[in-house]
Specification:
The chain is 77% helix and 0% strand. By secondary structure, it is an all-alpha fold. The protein has 3 domains: 8-62, no CATH class; 71-164, Serine Threonine Protein Phosphatase 5, Tetratricopeptide repeat (Alpha Horseshoe), CATH 1.25.40; 184-263, Alpha Horseshoe (Serine Threonine Protein Phosphatase 5, Tetratricopeptide repeat).
Length: 273
């Protein structure tokens, strides 16, 4: 794009701030010096330039470079960031901020004490992380074996050691949910077994067997209900055997009685000649 022969584009970009305007003016002066702008400056531009220089003389700080932060302000900034990170237990980052502060004020005893304390916390944190990893592995083993009570205890230990670990919290919550579901199942199982036990005591074996079978559907691995079913089956077999034996004895007795009666009547029977 060719250099404009007028000041229209330049005036459009003039900022009301003194520093920005002076930069624009410097560009214009340079272009005029090299003959790249040949037209005379408009009155608007000249008046704006005068106002800018007047403002500069009245307030030279308006175009002065930004002040470099003082050592105290940098020190305070690092310590403020340290406090925030310490609350979040991000000790490695805490140590970084303390080292910055220590370079600014090498003789500050409070910084040295904090560095020693944070180094100790980092060591303890690493030990806890190792213990938490072992607890998580143990919890996973129990969980896979469906031993949710022991899995819960292991996951709780891991969360206690590393409260900020989302994986440990997630595993604990999942285990607690399963335990609540299992507790409801256990309650239904206990109700079914209690009903079956009552029927068993009343010798209503077939109904009792049905209730024990319902309990086993809820908790298939429970030995009590299975053993009671086996006991009922044995009782029923024994009862059937006794009943069959009794029936057989009755039949034999009836046969014997009938035979004996016939012989007793035999002498009185007249045989026709």
């Amino acid at each position: 794009m060719p250099i404009p022969d007028k000041y229209d584009l330049i005036c459009m970009n003039i900022n009301t701030q003194t520093k920005s305007f002076l930069i624009t003016s410097a560009v214009v002066v340079t272009l005029v010096s090299f003959g790249l702008i040949t037209s005379a400056p408009p009155e608007q531009f000249t008046n704006s330039l005068k106002r800018a220089f007047s403002a500069l003389l009245a307030s030279p700080d308006s175009v002065s470079p930004a002040k470099k932060p003082s050592p105290d302000s940098l020190f305070n900034l690092s310590m403020k960031e340290y406090d925030r990170l310490f609350q979040e237990r991000k000790y490695e980052l805490c140590l970084t901020e303390l080292k910055k502060a220590g370079k600014i004020k090498p003789t500050d005893q409070s910084v040295k004490e904090k560095i020693a304390r944070v180094n100790q916390l980092i060591t303890e944190q690493k030990q806890k992380q190792q213990e938490a990893a072992r607890a998580l592995a143990s919890g996973d083993s129990y969980f896979n074996a469906k031993d949710y009570l022991n899995a819960k205890a292991s996951y709780q230990m891991a969360v206690g050691l590393t409260p900020d670990d989302p994986a440990a919290k997630e595993k604990l919550n999942k285990t607690m949910s399963l335990l609540r579901s299992q507790k409801a199942t256990n309650t239904l199982y206990d109700v079914a077994v209690a009903s079956a036990d009552k029927l068993f005591q009343q010798k209503e074996y077939e109904r009792a067997k049905s209730e024990y079978e319902n309990a086993l559907k809820l908790l298939p691995g429970e030995a009590y209900a299975r053993n009671k079913i086996n006991e009922i089956v044995k009782i029923q077999v024994d009862l059937q055997a006794k009943e069959a034996s009794y029936t057989s004895l009755i039949e034999r007795a009836d046969n014997f009685y009938n035979a004996k009666t016939w012989r007793q009547r035999l002498p009185t029977i007249k045989v026709p000649v």
